[in-house]
Amino acid sequence: AIDINKLRGETGAITIDPGYKNSGSCTSNITFLDGEQGILRYRGYSIEDLAEKSNFLEVAYLLIFGELPTAAQIEKFEKDIRKYTLVNEEMKNIIDGFPRTAHPMGVLASLTSALTAFNPKSVNVDNEKEMYEAVCKTMAKFLVIATWTYRKNMGYPLNYYDNTKGYVENFMRLMFELPTGPYKMNPVVVNALDKLFILHADHEQNCSTSTVRMVGSSHAGLFASISSGVSALWGPLHGGANQAVLEMLEAIQKDGGDVEKFLAKAKDKNDPFRLMGFGHRVYKNFDPRARIIKKAADEVLADLGVDDPVLDIAKKLEKAALEDEYFKSRNLYPNVDFYSGIIYRAMGIPTEMFTVLFAIGRLPGWIAQWKEMRVNKEPIGRPRQVYTGSPLRDFTDINNR
Ligand code: ACO
């Protein structure tokens, strides 16, 4: 094992590695990823096994606490999460301050940050009980406020958590149940969503997780660190890709549905357009999550009997890109976001909410990584640079500039 203490301190030399393509920022026991072979494991368990045999809350527990829960532990975990699902009423005033057109990710980042106002005490990570309560609180409140971002946009009254229903079922209820009557739950949809959350739950040192660890390394609190993770996830090159995929598919459809034309645009180095949902920083052969989710996508589409021209475009584009030499030679395959967007659309989730769903799925990973970083007593994150600006200059008076 690498002793992190030995890696500290001044080395004298500074390596330049933009985008940290070859730099490790930490040691971690949480997630194993082999990009060449398309392997993803949480705490040693394969993503395939977890997606098939486990459920989201169990996986959250596994990521955060290191072991799969016993029956008693998971029952207690669910019960303890339920204890914290009420969100401070003053949070509603904060939501009211946003225009209805605000992007849900911006609102979610702000609301997560606002939670610090009602939870000012920082967690003592070495106190197991305190850490456990902070985990339950974060899992509970984040889910509720995430759905409120949608309710606000729609002008619907805000919903409260139903303690008789499971975590993922509650997501659907919190989103869609209206005062006019109970929401009709579709188990195929709930099951697919549970799977999607599992597949998104952690992905080692990706952009948002590195951000959460970096912010937390200054000993900023859990909610503040998670809020920064939400902001990092929002970008179209990261979590925002699932929204960008659907917007791209809609644009292709509006343009007449010629996928070859858009493929050519993506290959043209003078055109900034990229095929959204294709390529990955670490998976250079295939994204194992994409394989699992493609199957789930087929099941959901069949069950819901969806007939959607935009989804037909997705199928055509996937086929054409997989057969194209440019994409093949660069190992550009559909990533998890290509299929997640398709499932979300079939489920009736509005496009602007796609990245919020990613955030709900990624939350246990952020918490687990934040906790690990603090428990390991990692130093504050502070990269170096190589200065390339002007040498020393004489100050010029404003009248002489
Ligand atoms: N469309 C067209 N060309 C692409 C694409 C794409 N989606 N992705 C990469 N390429 C090309 C690049 O132009 C480059 O070509 P070149 O060698 O001729 O210059 C080559 O493939 C390598 O690409 P890089 O940008 O160096 O790869 P990097 O690892 O930096 O980027 C990324 C990975 C950001 C995911 C990129 O593939 C991309 O922009 N994809 C689209 C956005 C997307 O789907 N993001 C979701 C990522 S998954 C997630 O966050 C869960």
TrEMBL record:
Similarity section: Belongs to the citrate synthase family.
Recorded GO MF terms: citrate synthase activity
Keywords assigned by UniProt, alphabetized: Acyltransferase, Transferase, Tricarboxylic acid cycle
One Pfam family recorded for the sequence: Citrate_synt
UniProt catalytic activity: oxaloacetate + acetyl-CoA + H2O = citrate + CoA + H(+)
Active site residues of this protein: H280, D337
Higher taxonomy: Bacteria, Pseudomonadati, Bacteroidota, Flavobacteriia, Flavobacteriales
GO BP terms, alphabetized: tricarboxylic acid cycle
Protein name: Citrate synthase
Highest taxon above the source species: Bacteria
One cellular component (GO) term of this entry: cytoplasm
Pathway: Carbohydrate metabolism; tricarboxylic acid cycle; isocitrate from oxaloacetate: step 1/2
Keyword Ribosomal protein (UniProt): no
PROSITE patterns, per database record: CITRATE_SYNTHASE
Presence of keyword Ribosomal protein: no
